[in-house]
Design brief:
disordered C terminus, 3-stranded antiparallel sheet, 5 domains, about 650 residues, alpha+beta, 5-stranded antiparallel sheet
C-alpha cells in the first residue's frame, strides 16, 4: 500500500515531474480509504472528501473558469493531505473494526505468542525483569489499554491467558471503533443518538452471547433444585425492574430522611465544555459538526466530570459542608455524557456553598465561552416530596423501565425529544430501544451510571437481608438497638415496605467516613499463601456477613445465609427446560424435585466461631489443636480417629 507523501516532491524539476500530485493518485487513495472503512462510515467519508475532491478530467471550462480554478496538482495535493489527516485520526479505528470471532482468534494467537516469548527468555536464561519486559513489549505493540501495571510473574500469566486478551481486545475494539464514529459525527439525534448502529449491534451481540451462556449453565442447590444461571440472575439486581425498584427505594428513603431533618435539596444538571461535543444542533434541530470539537471521547468527558466533582467535594469538605444524595450519568444525543444529581445539604448556608463551589469548578475550564454561564450548570431547589419525581425519569431511561415512552435530552439549554423510529413507540413490540442505546453507550465507554453520595453502603443493605432473624437474639439481649432497627428496615413485612430512611438512621445518618458507619461487611480471612489464577496474593476474602463497628456487640459477626450451589454437568435442567435442544446436549436425566431443606436447628453451619477459628479455642483451649498444628494430612487423619465423626465432619 503506497503511503501518502506529506511534503511536495520539489527537490528538482525531474523529481517533480515524476512524483507530482495527480487527480488519479488522489482519487485512488480516497477509494482505498473508503473501501477499508466500516460500511456505516463510507457515506460520511465520501461527503467529507467531497469538498476537496480532485476534478474529473475532460470537463469543459471557459477561459474565466480555467483562470479562477486552482491547478489540478494543487487540488489533488489538498485532497491527499485531507486523506492523510483522516488516516491519522481514524485509520486505527478502521483497522480495529473486527468481528467477535476474529477477536477470539486474535486472543488465542497473542496468548500463544506470549507463551513462546516467555519460553524463549527462559531458554536464554533471562531473569524475571527481562521476561516481563518482553511481555510489556508485546502488549504495547498490540496497543491495548493495560488494566493493571505490567509487573512481576502475574503479568506474564495474564498475557498467556487467552481469556485475558479476549476481554481487553473487546474493550479496545469497542472504544476505538466507536470513537471513530463519534469523531466523524455519525452519532447524533437524526441517527438514533447515544451510540452508533455498529456499537449498538456489538452490545446486543454481547448480551446475546452472555444470555446463551447463562441459559446453558446449570447449578443445583443444597435442596436438590436445579436452575439455569439466567433464572438466578433474573432474581437479582441484574434484572432492570429489580435494579430500578431498589434505586427508587433508596431515593424515596433519602428524601424522607431529608424532610424529617429539614435538609435543603438541590437538583443539579452538570454538562461539559463545548470542545467535548462533536455535534451541535443548528436551525430546525438539524445536526451539524461542532467546530470547537477537539476529538475527545465520551470517556474523556466522564473523566473530566469526575475530576471536577472530586475538586468540588474536597473544597466543600475543607469548609465542613456535609452532603448526600445520588448522581446519574447519561448521554446527550451525540454521546457526550452529562450528570443529573440529587443533593441534600444540612442548611441553606450549606446549599449556597455547594452551588457556589460547583459553579466555580465547572466554569474554571473555558468558562468564558458562549453559553457556558447559562447552560453548563443548572441548579434547582427541590420542593418537599418531589425528589423521586425529579430523578424517576432518568432512572427509567437508564434501566429500561417499560412505562417510559420517550427519551428527552437537553441541548444548548433547550429540551428535545429523542426519536428512535417506530420501535420507540409503546404500542410496538420492540419497546425500550432508547434504553438499549443508553446501555450500549455505558457499556462501551465503561461509565458508571448511578452512584450514591454520602449514604450508607447498599452492600450492607443487601447482606443484611440474607441474615437469619435468629442471629439477632443475642443482639437484642445486649441492647444493640441500631442493628435491630437496621435489620427491620431492610426487610418487607406484609404491607410494610423496606425503609431506607430507617436504615440510614440506624447506620448513623449521612456523610460519615467509612469507618464510622454502624455496620460494615465481614470478610473471610484468606488462607496463608492463597493466590488467584494469575498468582497474585488474595488480600481480602469473600464477604460472609456483617459486623458492628461500635457498641457492645462491636466485632460480633452476623453471618449471611447463603445456599450452597454446585455446577451440574452431564444432565439436563429442571422440567421447564426439557425439550430445549441446547440444554438436552447436557443429558436427559432429570433431577428429582423436592422442597428446600430447613435451617439446621443448631445453627452450626453458619456459626461465626467456626468461620473465624474461635470454636476450636472455645472447645479445647490453646494447645495442640490450633489450625497450624493440625492442618497437615497426617494430623487431620489422627484427629478424625480421635474425635467423633460428626464433630470431625463439622471441622472440614
Amino acid at each position: 500500500m503506497a503511503t501518502i507523501p506529506r511534503k511536495p516532491p520539489t527537490a528538482s524539476l525531474a523529481e517533480w515531474e515524476r512524483h507530482k500530485p495527480t487527480a488519479h493518485a488522489a482519487n485512488r487513495h480516497m477509494e482505498r480509504v473508503i473501501k477499508c472503512a466500516p460500511a456505516g462510515w463510507q457515506a460520511a467519508i465520501r461527503s467529507r472528501f467531497g469538498a476537496t475532491a480532485a476534478p474529473v478530467m475532460g470537463m469543459a471550462q471557459t477561459a474565466e473558469e480555467f483562470l479562477a480554478t486552482p491547478p489540478d496538482w494543487a487540488v489533488a495535493w489538498d485532497l491527499m493531505q485531507a486523506i492523510a489527516a483522516y488516516e491519522d485520526d481514524y485509520g486505527a479505528a478502521a483497522l480495529w473494526n473486527l468481528p467477535d470471532f476474529e477477536i477470539c482468534e486474535m486472543a488465542k494467537k497473542l496468548a500463544a505468542e506470549a507463551d513462546e516469548l516467555d519460553a524463549l527468555c527462559i531458554g536464554r536464561g533471562d531473569g524475571l525483569e527481562a521476561r516481563v519486559d518482553s511481555i510489556r513489549m508485546l502488549v504495547r505493540c498490540v496497543g491495548i489499554t493495560e488494566d493493571k501495571p505490567i509487573k512481576g510473574e502475574p503479568a506474564i500469566k495474564r498475557a498467556q491467558d487467552a481469556a485475558w486478551w479476549r476481554r481487553r481486545l473487546r474493550v479496545h475494539v469497542a472504544r476505538v471503533v466507536e470513537a471513530g464514529a463519534v469523531g466523524l459525527g455519525l452519532v447524533h439525534k437524526a441517527s438514533g443518538g447515544y451510540v452508533s448502529s455498529d456499537g449498538l449491534q456489538r452490545r446486543q451481540a454481547q448480551i446475546k452471547r452472555n444470555a446463551e451462556a447463562l441459559g446453558h449453565t446449570l447449578y443445583r442447590n443444597e435442596a436438590g433444585q436445579v436452575f439455569t444461571l439466567r433464572e438466578l440472575a433474573e432474581l437479582g439486581t441484574a434484572n432492570p425492574i429489580i435494579r430500578g425498584g431498589e434505586l427508587m427505594t433508596r431515593i424515596r428513603g433519602a428524601e424522607e430522611y431529608a424532610d424529617a431533618n429539614a435538609h435543603v435539596g438541590l437538583f443539579l444538571t452538570l454538562t461539559l465544555p463545548s470542545r467535548f461535543h462533536p455535534v451541535k444542533l443548528g436551525s430546525g434541530g438539524r445536526p451539524i459538526p461542532n467546530r470547537n470539537y477537539k476529538g475527545a471521547t465520551p470517556r474523556d468527558g466522564q473523566l473530566w466530570l469526575r475530576d471536577m466533582w472530586a475538586k468540588t467535594r474536597a473544597a466543600l469538605a475543607r469548609k465542613g459542608v456535609r452532603m448526600y444524595g445520588l448522581r446519574v450519568a447519561e448521554p446527550h444525543h451525540d454521546a457526550t455524557p452529562h450528570w443529573h444529581a440529587l443533593v441534600w445539604a444540612e442548611c441553606e448556608e450549606g446549599a449556597a456553598l455547594i452551588e457556589a463551589a460547583i459553579r466555580k469548578y465547572w466554569l474554571s475550564d473555558d468558562g468564558s465561552e458562549r453559553g457556558a454561564v447559562e447552560n453548563r450548570v443548572n441548579v434547582k431547589r427541590m420542593v418537599k416530596g418531589g425528589a423521586a419525581g425529579y430523578v424517576a425519569k432518568y432512572i427509567a431511561k437508564s434501566v429500561g423501565h417499560l412505562a417510559l415512552a420517550e427519551h428527552m435530552d437537553v441541548v444548548q439549554g433547550e429540551q428535545i425529544t429523542m426519536d428512535f423510529g417506530e420501535q420507540g413507540k409503546p404500542d410496538v413490540k420492540e419497546t425500550g430501544v432508547g434504553f438499549r442505546r443508553v446501555d450500549a453507550w455505558a457499556a462501551t465507554w465503561g461509565i458508571r451510571q448511578f452512584q450514591t453520595i454520602g449514604m450508607p453502603s447498599v452492600t450492607v443493605w443487601r447482606e443484611l437481608r440474607r441474615v437469619s432473624g435468629d442471629q439477632l437474639e443475642l443482639f437484642a439481649r445486649e441492647g444493640d438497638r441500631a442493628t435491630l432497627r437496621a435489620f427491620g428496615a431492610c426487610h418487607r413485612r406484609g404491607e410494610i415496605r423496606a425503609d431506607w430512611r430507617a436504615f440510614m438512621e440506624a447506620m448513623g445518618g449521612h456523610a460519615l467516613p467509612r469507618g464510622q458507619w454502624h455496620l460494615r461487611t465481614a470478610h473471610r480471612t484468606p488462607e496463608d499463601g492463597q493466590v488467584n489464577k494469575y498468582g497474585e496474593e488474595v488480600k481480602v476474602g469473600r464477604i460472609v456477613g456483617l459486623q458492628p463497628q461500635r457498641g457492645r456487640m462491636c466485632g460480633r459477626w452476623l453471618v449471611s445465609r447463603r445456599i450452597a450451589w454446585a455446577p451440574v454437568l452431564g444432565e439436563s435442567t429442571h422440567a421447564a427446560d426439557v425439550g430445549n435442544p441446547a440444554d438436552q446436549a447436557q443429558g436427559q436425566a432429570e433431577a428429582p424435585a423436592r422442597a428446600a431443606l430447613p435451617r439446621a436447628w443448631t445453627g452450626f453451619n453458619n456459626c461465626t466461631a467456626r468461620l473465624t477459628g474461635d470454636l476450636a479455642r472455645l472447645a479445647f483451649g490453646r494447645g495442640d489443636h490450633e489450625k497450624e498444628d493440625w492442618c497437615t494430612p497426617e494430623a487431620l487423619a489422627h484427629f478424625r480417629a480421635l474425635r467423633s465423626p460428626a464433630l470431625a465432619e463439622g471441622w472440614q
